[in-house]
Every structure is written in C-alpha cells, then in structure tokens.
Prior knowledge:
Radius of gyration: 28 Å
CATH superfamily of the largest domain: P-loop containing nucleotide triphosphate hydrolases
Strand content: 5-15%
Helix content: 40-55%
Structural class: alpha/beta
CATH topology of the largest domain: Rossmann fold
Shape: elongated
Number of strands: 13
Distance between the termini: 62 Å
Strand order of the largest sheet: 7-9-10-11-8-12-13
CATH class of the largest domain: Alpha Beta
Largest sheet: 7 strands, mixed
Amino acid sequence: xxxxxxxxxxRTIREAMETxxxxxxxxxxxxxxxxxxxxxxxxxxxDVPVWTWSLxxxxxxxxxxxxxxxxxxxxxxxIVAHDGAAIFHLQDFHEPLRESSEIRRRLRDVYAAALDxxxxxxxxxxxxxxxxxxxxNLLFIELRPPDLVELIEFLREETRGLGAxxxxxxxQMARALxxxxxxESRYAVRRAVASGHPLGPQSxxxxxxxxxxLVNRTGVIEFISDGTHLSEVGGLEGLKxxxxxxxxxxxxxxxxxxxxxxxxxxxxxxxxCGKSLCVKAIANAFELPLYRIDMSEIFSGRRGKAEGVFxxxxxxxxxxxxxxxxxxxxxxxxxxxEAGGEQGRIFAFFLTWMQEKTRGLFVAATxxxxxxxxxxxxxxxxxxxxFFVDLPVASEQVEIFxxxxxxxxxxVSGFNLEQLTQFTIGWTGAEIEQCVVSAITRAxxxxxxxxxxxxxxxxxxxxxxxxxxxxxxxxxxxxxxDRAMRATPATR
Length: 492
C-alpha cells in the first residue's frame, strides 16, 4: 500500500509501532474507527494479525480465532505468551487499569514481554485515565477526526452501489465532512442520499446541513449558513480589494510557504458599519464554510472551564479546515494579559495558536471597543492586516441605499439617491437599512409603493449614532488613525 494514500491516523499509529513502542493509549470515542485503523496498520506492516479484547466479547482475532477469556488478567497473560508479531486492541481497558493494581503490574510485564518482539498493544478509550505507574511506559495519542484520505475511502465504501462519483466529487464531499466523526459522516451521507440528489456537488448542501446540526450542538461554535456576496457590501473598496488579492493566495495555500498564506484579518470600527456583513462576504468570496465562536458562551461556565473549552474549540476548527473562523467582538473575551489568570492563559494560547494554526483556517475577527485590545493582538504576524471600518462617506451611502432598496424589490431608477445623503450625514450602514425598512413599512401600511419622500421623511426625524455617541466615536477614530488601515480608500 502506498504511503501517499495513508491517513493521518494510520500513519501516527504505524510510526509509533515501527519505532518499537509496545504500548499506546488511544483516546477516541470512535471505537470502530480505531479498529479499522489498526487493521490498516497491520496490513501496511506486513499483514500483522489484529486481536481485539472487550469485557463483553473476550479476546478474538480478525480471522475468527477465539482466545475466549473476558478476564483482563488472562488477556494480558495471553499477550505475554503469544509467539510472533501481532497487534492487540484492548477496548475500554481503562476500567481494569483503574480498579486493579494487579492489572497495572501485569501490563508492565506485557511492556517488557512485547518490547522488540513485534507485539503491539493499543488501549482505546473515550476518556483519558492513565495510571501513574505506567504513564512513562506508553504513548498517549489523541485521535483527531478523520482527514481527507480517511473520509474519501469511507465515502467510497458508504456510497458503493449508489452511483459512480468522480474523484473530484469524492474530494468535494470529503471537504464538506471534515471535522465530523465517521459515524456522523455516515448520517450526513444518508441525509444527502435521502434528499434525492445525485452524489457530487449537488449533495454538498445536504452534507453541510447535517454538519450544521452536529456542530451547533457544541454550544460554543455556530455554523453560519447565510452567505453574503461582496457586491452586497456597500463601499469599503480598500477592504474588498485586499480580500480578492488574498483569496488567490489562500486558494494556492498548499503550494506556498506558510508565511505567505493568509492567516486572517481584524476589523475594528464603529458599530453598524458592516463588519459582520464583511465576514459573511469573506466566506462567500473564499468559497468556504463559516463558523462563529461564541466567546460569551465560552466564559459562561456552562460548558466547563473556559480555558479548556476555548482550546478544544480552536482545535476542533483546525480539524474542520479549510474554513473561515469568526471571532465576533473579540475584545470581550481576549483582553486580559495577566499571566496568572485564566483570561491571560487563554490570551497567550490564542497568540501562539494564531501563528501556528493550520494554513487552511482563515480567522476573521471583529471588534468595537478597539481600545481594549492589547498591543500584542494587533501587531503584524498575528493578523495579516488590521482594518478600520469608519462611517460610510456619501458615495458609499448611495450604494448602501441602492443595495437595500433593490434587495427588497424596489425600482430605484426614479430615485435621486444622491439627494438623500443631505439627510444622512454621519449615518451608519445599519441606520440606512432601517431607514429603508421603515419607509417600506409605511408605504405597505398605506397600500402604495415606496417613494423618495418616504425615505426623506424618515431620515429627517432620525438621530444617528454618531450624534448621540459623538465623544465615543471620536475616540474610536482617533485611536485607529495611525494603528489600522482604512477599509475605505483615503481618496474621496
């Protein structure tokens, strides 16, 4: 078998076996997948037989041979006495290890008996319970979700007889399933088949829908399915140009040095000026799924200690790459740099992770309270660029009016949108949208079409955020003046 088509899981375990390590502890809830990977390792290592033990089924080999015993001590005795190369898979063996000092002692005997004798023992369990007595004798492996190689092979098996799919189709479907277990992937494939669409690009939406349900159950990661095209973002031409340039580099990421591959961007600025909309447009432009990490839920304590939940969420997202990862209002969760506190440790992990994360993950972070962000966060090397999203200028306001009117089915050919900007000085994009919504609502209540006068009437009575919070917005602008690149080009 070619190592070029070997999965990450198989390679990790095979390399541990080939270095002569007789004991490994594999933490995974996918027991059947562990058995499948060990069978592949045995085949790649010269058809080494695999024996499996469980408390309910006893010890038996893949070819049907039965050693019979469900007693963990006798199973270890069998391994010590066994002649010849073999792989022994001990399922949920953490229970006997925890409860019996005799079993812990006998496992150390197994270590000595298997060392350099081509006997390999793999303990699999969904939890990590490694007794101190044997901790230095075994290698601990955290089995991450299946990679593309493993998923493509799984798809071939699962869809056999359902219609031929090309290699490109398998690759596209596997990309959609990344981050899921094989069992979860199986349910997603069955949802796609049940939808009636042929296997391939047409079945990807069904796969992603199942993935959305599974990902959202974590409570801290949300799958965002409503994409936005860059053309639906009014203005911000400097940001759009930067994104289109980086999109090309990101799509070439496998052929470029890691330092050139885009890592992500940080958008800071005034609330209501389109930062969240831009994040959705990034995912659409990069043709990638979008996930949002809920920092308030991480720090709520409902999911466990914030530090562990945050680290696990980031690692889970790496398994789902390629993707766009959105940290909304990042300043609310990553502001403290006190080394001894939990927030300080989370912040330190995030800085390191941003530089070392997989190249298939593009991080888009947004912030309103930019003055709360530590200097370490915004320096070059963490994010590729830091953009400041200011209040839209007059030409951008016209474009935003046009986008929201056209989206709601209004013919704007008879509107003088430039005239409207006299009444919307200092308005945010969100305020313009609400002006359009209010004007359309008034027209519908009166059972007529919206007119330019409706927009002017609503605008004349509205007080923008830039007036009610003048001091705070001035502070934001002054802070960002020499610290960030403007999303709107300086030329007016």
